[in-house]
Model the fold of this input.
Amino acid sequence: MLRNLFVATVVVTLAGCATVQMRIDDVKPGCGADRPFAEGGERATLWIRTSAEFRSSAEGIYRSALLGLQQGLNDATWSAEPTQKGDFSRLPPAVVMDIDDTALDNSAPQARMLLATACPGDFDVLWDSWVAERAAPAVPGAAEFIRAARELKDPQGRPVRVFLITNRACGARRGVASACPQQDDTLANLRALGLDTSTLNDDLMLKGERPEWVSEKLPRRQLVARDYRIVLNVGDDLADFIPDVRQQSLAEREQARCRHHDWWGARWFVIPNPMYGSWQRVLGPELDAALAQPSIPSACGETG
Ligand SMILES: [Mg+2]
Done:
């Protein structure tokens, strides 16, 4: 019953777009050897979707990020990208940001996948249908941050450019001629949130737009760092900030985090995402076994 109701609610008609159906009909009951994609995510998804605590947290982080940006603009020795070397003090300023669950709230497809008991094999088509809807709300504070950041200038009067580095992937879509309809969808979604996208077309960097733009985001940050001083980075995953963490153990991730201990809340800002992320992947599928383990001790020393 719940499933049928859900199927009925995910067929939407978009102005100027084809009817998009999140093909829950194709989702087979049971996932065989796999576990449902969003299994166990009910509380996390509800926290994002309903809680005053999440909204206040996100707004506070973005407010702090704006203060960090103002501080960083006035310090030409400041970069938020560890691999940015050389005389970057002469470069104009930039912010790099992730999109999904940093700027755009994707708790809706998470909820849908939970309700439909979607399996890992269902993810790609369900996700692309969600992107095509162009309906993600902003993470609280994100749109205001982007607008305010783009109005700031460095002491030389050069405006801040905001680069959006996302692992939304370019990919063919049935019945659509564009090689990257996901780019048009994302820009339309950002426009719907009141953001000026006249330059965002150049500032939006999707996975797969170029061969070297893979899941690992470091090559895209480094491309930005060739021409801009990266003053601030905002993301929801350790991998938005530090390379190679997807392959690392919990202890290695903790050490990687602590190597930049002073940057969190100053140059790097994390939006909480308890729904999914590389933090979860490293735990593996046996969550009961992970629960039985002691917490990872801090590797940051006395300040950690
Ligand atoms: Mg993200």
